[in-house]
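Reviewer 2 asked us to include a model.

Predict the structure of this chain.
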Amino acid sequence: MRVVVLLTDGFIGDERAVLTNVQRDLGYARVFVFGVGDDVNTKLLDRLAADNRGTRDYVASTESIEEKVSNLYAKL
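Predicted model (structure tokens):
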């Protein structure tokens, strides 16, 4: 199984182009998304995870990302 993990705030430019390119370039990969920070583009990140059979989680600047990433690793 091909897996891609994104750690991002989701503000990465042309959303339509990003979605199209992910579908084209990643093929059947599963995409797991961590939205990091207090101002996150949840619309894009939710869509990336849903369209690519993954999950998404959000990590505020006051939270530890290590625990959430560890939970994903255990799940995989």
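The helical segments are 15-26, 42-51, 65-75. The chain has a mean pLDDT of 93. We have added this to the supplementary material.
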